[in-house]
Amino acid sequence: DKCPLSQNANIMVMLLTKHPEFFAYPMENIRGALSFAEESLHMSVDDIERLVTKMPVFLSYSVENDLAPSTSFFQEELGFSLSQIRRTIITYPPVVNYSGHANVEAVLDLMDELFDDPKDILRISMVEPIVWSLPIDDLVSRVSFLSQTMELDLDELRSILTSLPKLFTLRVDNNVMPKLEFFLQHMSKEDLRDYVLESPTILSSSLDGRIRPRIGQILELGFDISDTPAYLMMSNNKQFEAWRDQFTTTVSG
């Protein structure tokens, strides 16, 4: 039978040496998965090789129970085009394991509550497809923490999440919470809300690698953090030095 991978010796050697479990997969599933990828998803041989290299277990999935339902979900519920589905699966292969997403409907309900525009859900799914395999309790706790800590209304929360979908994936206890707590040492909750709304990507920065040292630099210049533009947190050293030099020149003049 025709097999897209049989033309590439390297991929077969990889499967043989690194993933011997490949040979325990039902042949029906292997053939079905390959045919589905090629014929239904219109993947090229290179696409399939990238997919299988990332996640060899893809070849064990059932078309009926996993691959077809996953594709239907992304098309019918989220409005993905075929090319968007293909790109999402290649980027994050675990999304095809539909039978493993016991809470996928709960995640969809949460997304519907948060976003009025289906395009927002589509964009988040494209940027962070992992969101569909995350426990619903984790997602709810992350969203609730952001909303409560900064006293965000729904529109503000929606604006931050659409600007930085990665927030769905960041843990509260060892990532987002320490950052917000540090900011609150230097500004009010209202100022923090405005600061993050101006530049949500601040929350993806490293606390020790970027936020803490940058705030230290700003304080050394005699500024209140809330009086400085939020983009300074994300600017590189050259950009920050240019801003600092401009400020110094203005003051001295």
What does this structure look like?
- Keywords: Transit peptide.
- This protein is mainly alpha-helical and 253 residues long.
- The chain folds into two domains: 1-100, Transcription termination factor 3, mitochondrial (Alpha Horseshoe); 104-253, Transcription termination factor 3, mitochondrial (Alpha Horseshoe), CATH 1.25.70.
- Helix content is 62%, strand content 0%.
- The chain contains 13 helices and no strands.
- The longest helix has 16 residues, at 237-252.
- The model has no long low-confidence stretch (mean pLDDT 88).
Task: Give the gist of this structure.
Belongs to the mTERF family. The chain has 253 residues and is mainly α.
> What gap, in angstroms, lies between the N and C termini?
79 Å
Low-confidence stretches: none
What is the arithmetic mean of pLDDT?
A: 88
**At CATH's second level, what is the architecture of the largest domain?**
Alpha Horseshoe
CATH superfamily of the largest domain: Transcription termination factor 3, mitochondrial
Can you give the helix content as a percent range? 55-70%
Pfam families: mTERF (PF02536)
Keywords: Transit peptide
GO molecular function: nucleic acid binding
Family: Belongs to the mTERF family.
